[in-house]
Amino acid sequence: MPMLIKNLLAHKKIALAISLIYSGLLLAVCLINLNDFPKVAVEKGDKIFHFLAYVVFTFLWYNTFSKLFSAKFWKVIFITIVFSIAFGIIIELLQGSLTTFRTADYHDVIANSLGVMMAGILIVSTRKRQVKKL
């Protein structure tokens, strides 16, 4: 199964489609009314969700940007991090302005940004290990 996912992400159109679908789903989940859904019994569970969602978001967009742009690694990782953090901030602003049942929360922005940074660290450290093997 991991090889299938790796092969799918290797094609830039498929990588872009997966990133766009994930982003759209993330946007939808963040803008819908979740009051009717069961509450998570884990303390700070929503912040854990934000963190993990943005780890995945950043990995997907890094994969997409690295295939779409013929730029150097550091430029692609920088673009990915800025894009991912900006996306999280925009969603929080939309929650505060477009909905009456959600509010903008700077704690969510922090959790999102920490997820982005964690993904960035993992991407950089994985790349360094791959370079050392060569």
Q: In words, what does this structure look like?
A:
The protein has 134 residues and is an all-alpha fold. The protein has one domain (2-133). Helices cover 80% and strands 0% of the residues. The protein is built from five helices and no strands. The chain has helices at 2-10, 12-31, 45-68, 73-98, 106-133. The mean pLDDT is 86.
Task: Quickly describe the structure.
This protein has 134 residues and is an all-alpha fold. The protein is built from five helices and no strands. It has helices spanning 2-10, 12-31, 45-68, 73-98, 106-133.
Taking the alpha carbons of the first and last residues, their distance comes to 26 Å
Specify Rg, calculated over alpha carbons: 16 Å
Q: Structural class of the secondary elements?
A: mainly alpha
User: What is the count of β-strands?
Assistant: 0
The share of residues in helices is: over 70%
pLDDT < 50 stretches: none
Along the chain, the helix and strand elements come as HHHHH
What does the main sheet amount to?
none
Question: What are the salient characteristics of this protein?
Answer:
134 residues, mainly alpha, 5 helices, 0% strand, elongated
